Amino acid sequence: MSEKYDVIVIGAGPGGYVAAIKAAKLGFKTAVIEAREAGGTCLNRGCIPAKAMIHAAEVYRSAKECERFGIHAENVTFDFEKIFEYKEETTKQLVQGVEGLFKGNGVDQIAGKGTLLPDKKVKVVSESGEQVLEAEHIILAAGSKPLILPIPGMDLPGVLTSDELFRMKSVPESLTIIGGGVISVEFATVYAELGCKVTILEALPRILPNMDKEISQNLKLILKKRGIDIHTAAAVQGVEADGDQYICKYVEKEKEQSAASQYVLCAVGRCPNTDGLFAEDATPEMNRGRVVVDEKFETSIPGVYAIGDLIFGAQLAHAASAQGIQVAEQLAGKEVSVDVNVVPGCVYTDPEIASVGITEDEAKEKGIAVKVGKFIMSANGKSLITKEERGFIKIVAEEESGVIVGAQMMCARATDMIGEFVTAVANNMTVSQLLKGMRAHPTYNEGIGEALEELEGGAIHVM
Ligand code: FAD
Q1: With a cut of 50, which residues of the chain have pLDDT below it?
Q2: Is the pTM of this model over 0.90?
Q3: Would 4-143+273-332 and 147-268 be classified into the same CATH topology?
Q4: Active site residue 441
Q5: Rounded Cα gap, residues 158 and 348, in angstroms
Q6: What is the CATH number of domain 351-456?
Q7: Which residue's C-alpha comes closest to atom 12 of ligand 1?
């Protein structure tokens, strides 16, 4: 007889671990099966190690630039092995935290690779053998892995994925990054700060192609000023080894060009982790490698759900977690507490970038009449104090109703401040409703109040 659970979750990333804990809190007998480490990509090979390295690089830059605050720090240097250790330690602490939460909430953590079998059974294969479990409900949260471009040379030893770059204990002299999305610009920021010569090759006409155009253009200028070489509309054709260098061949403005560097990072996106996830007679409907789900995240197999990077939609940790919460709440017959359709997107560059909802251009494409309120952060007191005056906050609201439909920001602490707009968009709040709450002084948040005021007749600190 196989052990029976109410809920079995396959994968303990931010989608799976949150779904499992929420299900257990709602009274379900729950197991989570994980082939590697708890925390998934996010804690081990994604958000957390990346942000730890970004933080270290920022501290390094602040130390070098502290003279402007009257503080002397001479010969500021860094030890990359120590930065590496700090990143690993941060990750380890968070992974242990998740494991502690499983224990504390009565979730059975089962090590091994899970395969979905027919009749809501799951086979788990581990070093200690094989077992079959069954459950009333199964949540697939197996996440994703780096996508490798189907071009020549991607199997060369110096062509890395983000997983491999995280394992490097030294800073490369030079790095060419294929792709100009979020992962690319974040790695570029860190390594350029630490002395690496970075080149970005992006096939589309701009970096961060999914973001507001003004933000992409500004970021390109800022990164170029920091010495990062950026080529857009540059389609990489292949990579070749040449001595201890790798040559990326690309076509830009119909001309063949090349970029040489010590390493190449392929950062062109991620694809779902479905290897061995399904038995042949228990494969749900798929589309271009992704598991197809309905609005309840149920797959074509009744009682089997899929969330996170496995399905279509934003491949983000908080989106995966919110979907996990929705599924657990649905199973318990509770009202769903979170709006999974309002997903903030953040980029942890300096200045930070954050957005939610639609941009002005997208509103135009959709035929929605909107008004835009913009505030330039150089007129914000806190930004002046910290000398982080660069940036702006833009709010997009429906012309007639004043309902906020989107916000884009590029400024210090944008990734924290976007929360105000997520709440506004998720609750269909109007400009005047969001303006009702005063903001503390001096804070970066005052910039939000000013951008809202701009829509209501004019920002205070603007002529
Ligand atoms: P994952 O986190 O991929 O977890 C899936 C888990 O399932 C893994 O632990 C895997 O081992 C396990 N698994 C797979 N198959 C099986 C199986 N058959 N049996 C058992 N276990 C299995 N997102 C953000 O929101 N913010 C960020 O700042 C951010 N930064 C990122 C930086 C980088 C460099 C990268 C690569 C990603 C970043 N992301 C970020 C994206 C984020 O990491 C993912 O969207 C998120 O981890 C997806 O969560 P998930 O639970 O769907 O899958």
Answers
A1: none
A2: yes
A3: yes
A4: yes
A5: 26
A6: 3.30.390.30
A7: 11
